[in-house]
Amino acid sequence: MPRRQAALAALAAALALLLLAGCSSAAASEVAPSPDELAATSLYDSGLSALDAHGNKKEMSELAGKVTLVVNVASLCGYTDSNYKGLTSVWDKYHEYGLEILAFPCNQFGEQEPASLPEIESFLGDRFQVKFSVMEKVEVNGAQEHPIFSWLKSHTPGEQQGADVAWNFEKWLVNKAGHVVKRYKSDFTLHEVEQAVYAELVGTGEAEGDKEL
Question: Where would one find the signal peptide in this protein (predicted)?
Fold first, then answer.
């Protein structure tokens, strides 16, 4: 009897491992974007979405006609201060004319975003008076990377196309048509980003209801 019980226990353990592996594979497949999503030439037509820090679903299609900056952010990075000050400055100046910013907290680089979403939002509000969208905490590289970052990396023009995110605060500038026009590294040059945002807001035509710059 003890041998039979031991054999049954071993069989149960093996089945549990198989089930766990199956669940992990399913989770990975849910994270990975579909071929149709990656094939879309416009982020706004990709069918992709993300949750904000409060669990509300945001469809990328809602951003059609907007100019969007997508950023992977961290609170304890050497680039935190310059980027949040720069992003806040640009958002305050151009949001009413059609600029949106999606900030995705990510703890993949030096574990520099360890806090919970409520703690991150409190920090950003108290220190930088952030008003743009703080999104769900995500991974931006690897098997569990968020589909939006898979899409952005694969649609970055030029030599950076397909390249993994190197560090915190990489930024993608997406125009009104949903195309990536620029990928910025971790440093923040206010004049460069502001000029590019202005050019996209003015140069790609005004969405209905936009104010004149």
Answer: 1-28
Residue 175 has φ and ψ, to the nearest 5°, of -85, -175
pLDDT tens, position by position, 33-69: 666 666 678 999 999 999 999 999 999 999 999 999 9
Euclidean distance between CA atoms 173 and 179, whole angstroms: 8
Beta bridge partners of 172: 70, 183
Amino acid letter for position 164: D
Predicted confidence (pLDDT) per residue in 119-174, tens digit:
999 999 999 999 999 999 999 999 999 999 999 999 999 888 999 999 999 999 99
Which CATH class name applies to 34-203? alpha beta
Distance between CA atoms of 186 and 82, rounded to whole angstroms? 10
Q: Three-class SS of residue 72?
A: strand
**What's the CA angle centered on 24, arms 13 and 45, to 5 degrees?**
165
d(CA 173, CA 177): 11
Q: Which residues pair with 48 in a beta bridge?
A: none
What CA–CA distance (Å, rounded) separates 107 from 72?
A: 9
Structural domain boundaries in the chain: 1-31, 34-203
Which one-letter amino acid corresponds to residue 209? G
Q: What is the pTM of this model?
A: 0.81
How many residues appear in the chain?
213
Query: For 164-176, how does the pLDDT look when each residue is reduced to its tens digit (9 = 90+)?
Result: 999 999 999 999 9
